[in-house]
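Example S7 (structure tokens).
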């Protein structure tokens, strides 16, 4: 199995296990409390009223809600860099090529071929020193007044002979686009590891 690794700031980006069951409740609580403590320590100097229990509850709710059946993923990372917000999940998936040419497969992977009558997707080339040339696609869905977006990154890994993608979905389009450089930085920090320790 291929694992997604990152060098992103560990006080802002949290790996989240996806396959906990009801029997793993103690582990989920421990993980949530640990993440909350990291966020608390990182932000207590400027944030007047950080509450560890509120932070832990947000992480716990996300842990209990995953995996989402409609978002294919092998791993997930949470952006918890703004303690006033519920952490934002980013989903990672590695897939073998399906026979299409690589460019078409990559466009499909980042949802660049998905149309929305309100607004076409914004697709740009996206370079990562770890994974090489890829694509970034901001895909819109919903109606004009309730426009949502998914931010999708995708690459072809010559080394591992597979496609790799990272994506997130948000109902807050302005927030997502305002933080796109931060999310680009995270995407560039990712690499694939077939032999994790």
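Recovered sequence:
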């Amino acid at each position: 199995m291929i694992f997604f690794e990152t060098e992103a700031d560990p006080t802002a980006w949290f790996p989240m296990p996806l396959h906990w069951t009801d029997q793993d409740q103690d582990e989920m609580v421990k993980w949530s409390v640990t993440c909350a403590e990291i966020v608390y320590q990182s932000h207590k100097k400027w944030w007047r009223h950080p509450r560890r229990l509120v932070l832990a509850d947000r992480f716990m709710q996300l842990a209990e809600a995953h995996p989402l059946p409609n978002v294919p993923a092998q791993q997930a990372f949470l952006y918890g860099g703004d303690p006033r917000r519920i952490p934002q999940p980013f989903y990672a998936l590695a897939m073998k090529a399906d026979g299409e040419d690589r460019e078409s497969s990559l466009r499909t992977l980042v949802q660049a071929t998905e149309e929305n009558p309100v607004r076409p997707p914004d697709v740009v080339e996206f370079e990562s020193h770890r994974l090489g040339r890829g694509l970034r696609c901001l895909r819109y869905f919903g109606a004009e007044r309730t426009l949502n977006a998914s931010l999708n990154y995708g690459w072809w890994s010559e080394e591992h002979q597979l496609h790799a993608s990272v994506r997130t979905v948000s109902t807050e389009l302005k927030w997502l686009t305002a933080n796109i450089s931060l999310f680009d930085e995270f995407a560039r920090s990712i690499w694939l590891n077939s032999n994790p320790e």
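Notes on this example. The mean pLDDT is 88.
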